[in-house]
Amino acid sequence: MKIAFIGGGNMGEAILRAMLEKKLCLPAAVAVSDVSAPRREFLSERYGVFVTADNKEAIRDKEIIVLAVKPQQINDVFTHLKGALSPEQLVVSIAAGISLDVITRGLAHRRVVRAMPNTPAQIGLGISGWTAAPEVTAAQKDAARLLLSAMGTEIYFDDEKYLDMVTAVSGSGPAYLYLFAESLIDAAVDLGLSREDARSLVLQTILGAASLMVKSDKAPAELRKDVTSKGGTTERALQVFEESHLAAIVGRAVSAACARAKELGRG
Q1: What's this model's pTM, rounded to 2 decimal places?
Q2: Which residues, including other chains, have CB under 8 Å from residue 177's CB and lie 6 or more apart?
Q3: Where are the alpha helices (DSSP H) in 112-245?
Q4: Sign of the CA dihedral 41, 36, 150, 181?
C-alpha cells in the first residue's frame, strides 16, 4: 500500500505507526508532508519515511492520501491540492466535522472517505466511525477499513449524518473522560491523599471499570447498581450527581459538540 500523509501530527503519526507495525505498508512506500521542519525530521528519523513540506510532492504515485490536519487547516490543503489528484487515488480525511461535500468540492476529487478516529488510536485502542462518497470503489472501502482497523475498531455508516454524532461521542469522548479523571484526582487530593496515590487509584479504577464494561454482558446501568448498596457510600455520591443533573449536563455537552461538528462541516 502506497500512502501519503498530509499532516504529521499526533493522529497522523498514530495511523502511520499502526500501518507500519501491522506491516500494511513499508517505510519506502510512505510520504509525509508537514509544515514543521522539526516534525519532519523526527518522523524521518523515527520511521524512515520520506518527508517533505510540499503536499503535491507527497501525493505523487500514492494510492491513499490521508488528510491528517485540523479542520482549521483544511482550506490550506485544498489550495495546495485542488486539481492535483488523479481520479483513482483515494482520499481519507480525519479532519473533524469536515463533510464529504466540502472535501470533494475543495479538492475537485470524488473518491473520498471521511473518518473520525479518536486519540486512543495512538495505542491501538481507538475506534473510528467512517463513511464514503458514492464514487469510492469496493476495493477502496476495503483498503480504508484495513487502515482504520489497524488503530483499533471501526464502524461504517451508510449515512454521513452519523459522523457528526460519532465526533461528539467518541471523537471528543476521551477528553470528557480525562476531565472526569482530573476532577476525581483533585477531589482525592482535597480529601488528603497524595497526588501520586490519587492518580494511581483513579487511573486503575477507570481502567478496571472500562475493562469490566467491555467484558461483561451487563449494561452500564446494571454494573452501576452492582456497586451501589442501599444507604451506602456510593449511593450518597450518586445522589449528588443526580441532584446536579449530571445526565443532562452530559447531554448538553455532547449536543454542543455535535452542533459544532455540523458548523465545521459547512466549511
Answers
A1: 0.88
A2: 206
A3: 138-149, 161-166, 173-191, 195-215, 220-227, 233-243
A4: positive
Cα distances (Å, whole numbers) of residue 17 to 4, 11, 27, 31 = 13, 10, 10, 13
Alpha carbon distance, N-terminus to C-terminus of the chain? 31
Task: Return d(Cα 118, Cα 54) in angstroms, integer.
Answer: 27
The answer to whether 97 and 262 have CB atoms below 8 angstroms apart is: yes
Residue 112 DSSP SS3: strand
Query: Of the candidates 134, 191, 129, which has an alpha carbon nearest to the alpha carbon of residue 161?
Result: 129
Query: pLDDT tens, 59-72?
Result: 999 999 999 998 88
Helix (H) or strand (E) holding 4: strand 3-6
- Report DSSP letters for 31-95, one per residue: EEE-S-HHHHHHHHHHH--EEES-HHHHHTT-SEEEE-S-GGGHHHHHHHHTTTS-TTPEEEE--
- The 10s digit of each residue's pLDDT in 137-146 is 999 999 999 9
The C-alpha atoms of residue 192 and residue 172 are separated, in whole angstroms, by 31
| Three-state secondary-structure class, residue 114 | strand
